[in-house]
Amino acid sequence: MAFLDNPAIILAHIRQSHVTSDDTGMCEMVLIDHDVDLEKCHSSAASAGGSSSGGSFVDGSGGGDGQTCDLSQSVDITSSWDFGIRRRSNTAQRLERLRKERQNQIKCKNIQWKERSSSQSADDLSSLFEKKDFKDRPRSTGSKSTLSLRLEQCPQQLNNPFNEYSKFDGKGHVGTTATKKIDVYLSMQSTQEKLHPMTVVTMANARVHDLIGLICWQYTCEGREPKLTENVNTYCLHIAEDDGEVDTDFPPLDSNEPIHKFGFSTLALVEKYSSPGLGPKQSLFVRINAAHGFSLIPVDSLKVTMKEILQKALKKRKGSQKGSGPMYRLEKQTEPNLPVDLDSTLESQGTMEFCLVRENRISGEKVEIDPVTNQKTSTKFWIRQKPISIDSDLLCACDLVEEKSPSHAIFKLTYLSNHDYKALYFECDAATVNEIVLKVNYILESRASTSRADYFAQKQRKLNRRTSFSFQKDKKSGQ
């Protein structure tokens, strides 16, 4: 109230109040600098400067007409980091401190120490804190927990030496994480048990080595026999057929490769070492030579019969010894054209190399055509031909089409199919073609067939019409 007679202070207060409360900036222009008497302001500032050593109302940087009064201008508004944040008052801070002290007092409990008034004997004191033996406490006869029952049912799971590979089991992650389902045939089991595969679900990011460990872990958890060697490197994975036959023509899968690299859904676990530290186990393989390559047939012992070896060889070569299909036999490599007795054992043959020969059997019932593809020729862009079976009653004719050279000849088979006559052409060397044509015609002549008679009758009618047409044409040209 002492400075209300000073117009400069009142003017600065009014301007500052308007500027800070008005967002448009128009109030700042209401009061300007020439409203203040600069001389009076300067004289008052000079008189105040003698009593005050720190401050001055006049800006000393300028002189003359450029001198203005600081109090006539509003205070510059500057922003800081605490702009918009209201500082807490001392009362709020004190209340917060009291609240924390109250919470700490709740956690603590003060106990007043009192001297013992009556003396107690040692027996009384020992009875207050009696020592109890919990080992002799009788066990409760309540119901067992589910975890206890599961542990009792699977005691071997606790002692499974392959527990470190259980993390690759993907049965609980199907649908949430990439997994792969594989049927694994176990070659170390008995003859009956090895026919049924063990289904394993593994994580897609597992390696072949991890998959072998997972198979061993699941094998041990299921309590299968015989027990496995604790060394995972003792086993390897081979490609297997759908019936469990191990394809030994290909090497085992690389243990360091990821399992998702291979697209096989059927594999076989094979023991490659007899025991840790020893060399590879000596496996028995029988070599079967065929027309287009050879196959290695693994056998368990020399007591196996030749009939079993023949069946395994036909499975590998996708052949069959049943029904009306082509028949095969085994011959020794050193004794061609001498069939091997299928009831004899491998030990009695004295050799491990045989030939798979297709038997040339002539039957009057039907003619079977089994296409043979050349492995050297790429079949990527060609459709594989299927075997054809033609009944002898539907077979009409077998004719030699052309014979260019002794190494190349063509013959034709004509047969009835859906009330229409179709022809099949075959190429081979001249000697084989002539032999086939001779034998097929011998079979056709020995059998009376209605379709063959109709075919020749239709062929004769076509020949007569052609002859009659050519005769009329020659007659007209002669006239």
TrEMBL record:
Subcellular localization(s) per the UniProt record: Cell membrane; Cytoplasm, Perinuclear region; Early endosome membrane; Endoplasmic reticulum membrane
Superkingdom, natural source: Eukaryota
Main location: membrane
Segments forming domain CRIM: 144-272
Domain Sin1 N-terminal: 18-134
Residues of the Target of rapamycin complex 2 subunit MAPKAP1-like Ras-binding domain: 292-358
CC annotations in GO: early endosome membrane; endoplasmic reticulum membrane; Golgi membrane; late endosome membrane; lysosomal membrane; mitochondrial outer membrane; nucleus; perinuclear region of cytoplasm
UniProt entry keywords in alphabetical sequence: Cell membrane, Cytoplasm, Endoplasmic reticulum, Endosome, Golgi apparatus, Lysosome, Membrane, Mitochondrion, Mitochondrion outer membrane, Nucleus
Coiled coil: none
Source species of the chain: Cyprinus carpio
Gene3D superfamilies: Pleckstrin-homology domain (PH domain)/Phosphotyrosine-binding domain (PTB) (2.30.29.30)
Annotated membrane topology: Peripheral membrane protein
Composition bias, Low complexity: 44-59
GO BP terms, alphabetized: TORC2 signaling
UniProt signal peptide: none
Family: Belongs to the SIN1 family.
Residues annotated as domain SIN1-type PH: 362-445
GO molecular function, one term: phosphatidylinositol-4,5-bisphosphate binding
Chain residue ranges for the region called Disordered: 44-69
Database matches in InterPro entries: CRIM_dom, PH-like_dom_sf, RBD_SIN1, Sin1/Avo1, Sin1_N, Sin1_PH_dom
Protein name in the entry: Target of rapamycin complex 2 subunit MAPKAP1
Claim: Cell membrane is one of the keywords in the record: yes
